[in-house]
Amino acid sequence: MNWLALIGARALAMLGGWGRAAIFFVDLLAALPASLRRFSLVVVQIHAIGNRSLLIILASGMAVGFVLALQLYNTLITFGAAESLGLVVNLSLVRELGPVVTALLFAGRAGTSLTAEIGLMKAGEQIAALELMAIDPRQRVLAPRFLAGIISMPLLAILFSAIGILGAWLVAVGLIGIDAGNFWSIQQNAVDVWRDVGNGVVKSAVFGVICTAVALYQGYETEATPEGVAYATTRTVVISSLAVLGADFILTALMFSAPR
Amino acid sequence: MSKRNLEILVGLFVVLGLAALVFVSLKAANLTSFSNGATYALTARFDNIGGLKARAPVRSAGVVVGRVTSISLDAKTFQGVVSLEVQRSYEFPKDTSAKILTAGLLGDQYIGLEPGGDEKNLVAGDVITQTQSAVVLENLISQFLFNKAADAGGTGGAGGAGGGEAAKKP
């Protein structure tokens, strides 16, 4: 019966982990209003999370736009629909690739640094020191980072989409020679601001919540050793990537499955 | 880094993000087309709307003058009821007819308005009475095949009769 006890212990440990994560998330939400009162802390974190992710987001968006335009042209030209290239690039970026790829890059670029920072704070007992001074570390340390992540992610995602569309425009109009007027007007006819762009922004805000919460939780729960921090950063990337992809499927099914 | 510089950099980031949102909304999506409220509502009933969708364009002489706002089915007459919004700057005579047309061979369907000669104009809430349904490919093909078969049957019958005559001759 030893293995049965082992399975039971594993299941209980897993359930406990889920419970801790849920309680942590609710605490984080409850601490958010406090971070609004001291917004200068949030500004510093937006700089650390948002501004410093800007370069990789813009470079990746540009590259994705280039590649999408080149690849789609080969297929679309066989149907004589090369002019729709801008539309396909636009919809795939604004609805899916913008929010998802940005979230994956964000998990790698900003999520890991958050986890390592919080983890080392924990390892250096700075969190405990804050608690000793009767300062709630959730309000002082975690909530500003959480809010900064939620604010930064939609901005980064829409920048990714915009620079991707511009990249596709450069390739399509400059390199391939598609008519610029058609390139834009076909997009304007078919892309709806609320349905497509708006839902994309909502998606990226949800991903911002997921990525930042996972990174903060992993940092906060990290074992206070060098290996513990390394393990926690790895788990941040893995868990937030999987969570983003899963949430994307659910959100897409909710937002875009119904016919117009 | 001083606090002031940091705030300027963050402000730059936020402004850049909002500029991207405005760019995507205005240049790459349809926020500019008919977002102002200067439209009036019309209704048209069709026996078959084919593949018409909400937000499809309404054109007159090929020029976009409005959009389809909603599509529903009249439970009594079993007709498709299509609500349109037309820009207020364009007024159409009362006997204007509406057709469901297709852009190109495989393109999206849209509503074409053909103005009549009435002196009174359509006003908000009016119903366009003269409509022509969408061309459904299956119906078209089956009609074509039916006609072809009818023709073939006709000539076959004549041939048979001719054969009969030929048989009588000798």
Helices and strands, with pairings:
The complex is a heterodimer of chains A (260) and B (170).
Chain A: H1 2-37, H2 39-49, H3 54-76, H4 85-123, H5 126-132, H6 137-176, H7 180-190, H8 193-220, H9 226-256
Helix pairs in contact in A: 1-6, 2-6, 3-4, 3-6, 4-6, 4-7, 4-8, 4-9, 6-8, 8-9
Chain B: H1 3-27, E1 39-46, E2 57-60, E3 63-73, E4 80-87, E5 97-102, E6 109-114, E7 127-128, E8 130-132, H2 137-168
Parallel strand pairs in B: 1-7, 2-6, 5-8
Antiparallel strand pairs in B: 1-4, 2-3, 3-4, 5-6
Please tag this protein with its features.
heterodimer, A: 260 residues, mainly alpha, B: 170 residues, alpha/beta, eight-stranded mixed beta sheet, 8 strands, 28% strand, elongated, disordered C terminus
Compact overview of the structure:
The complex is a heterodimer of chains A (260) and B (170). By secondary structure, chain A is mainly α.
Overall description:
The complex is a heterodimer of chains A (260) and B (170). Chain A is 87% helix and 0% strand. Chain A is an all-alpha fold. The longest helix of chain A is centred in the middle third of the chain and has 40 residues, at 137-176. Chain B is elongated and about 95 Å long. Classes of the chains: A mainly alpha (260), B alpha/beta (170). The interface between A and B is medium-sized, with 35 and 27 residues.
| Amino-to-carboxy terminus distance of chain A | 57 Å
Assembly state = heterodimer
Termini of chain B, distance in Å? Answer: 116 Å
Q: How much of the sequence of chain B is in beta strands?
A: 25-35%
On the 0 to 100 scale, the average pLDDT of chain B is 82
How many beta strands in the DSSP annotation of chain A?
A: 0
Principal-axis shape of chain A: elongated
